[in-house]
Amino acid sequence: MSISVSTIMYGPYHLDAVWPLLETEGSGQIGIEVFPYYHLTYFEQVLKQNVQRLKGCPISVHCPYFSTDPCFSPGTMEYNLNMDYYKKAFACAQLLNAKYMVHHFYNFHFAVEEREKKQDIAMENLVRFKALAKEYGVALALENTEITRNPAENMFTQEEFIRIVLEQTGCKALIDIGHANCAGWDLLELIRTLKDQIVGYHVHNNDGFHDSHRRILDGTLDIKQFLRSARQYTPDADYTIEYVADFNSVESVCKDIAFLKKGGLAEVAHICQV
Fold first, then answer.
1. What pLDDT, on a 0 to 100 scale, did the predictor assign at position 264?
2. C-alpha triplet 125, 129, 134: angle, nearest 5°
């Protein structure tokens, strides 16, 4: 087990805000998942300013998310823009020797009647992203991005997501436990079934309906039960804390890191209540 923090907590302009946290935890103890903002030109300057320090850390890279979507067909403006951002993200992952890059099948929600068409585009584009991953020498980790309880509004059902992961050679799985909670998925079954493919988890909590990325004990997801299953079936997986900016204080995140390190044992459960 290893623990990382996502830089989404610090926004596009304050990536360096992660360093006080890492200094508190000790050098090399905590990894970083770089969350890119390539739609903002200044972000690339911020990234460049932090590259040397990032190279000294365990790294993963998130796919581009804001203002772009990987689920448009070739020839469209949206497709071209997304591919440009993805290539930049792959280059970043290559430069930083990232363990993997996280992939979303889609970012923008769609009309119910578009679901089958969007599924086809997502799978066609996955072939292209896998080719890019091979070109840049970066592993691709497929994330569950479904966040509603109406299957018609989601790209894939749990069963469909499992089948895709199991059938896609050269890909691993990144399970976002907060997304699974919002979508009403059976998280423990997901872990048991995909145990050999899971490289990591995005760790956060919510009320079961809104993808609010709150602290790990602040929600309806049973974090202790999750940790028991994750330890049993995926002992080497990464836990990446992926909170919104409201919960990015060094004190709060360090307490949640301590909770994860202890595996959610009852005697340390109180530390996340601060």
1. 63
2. 150
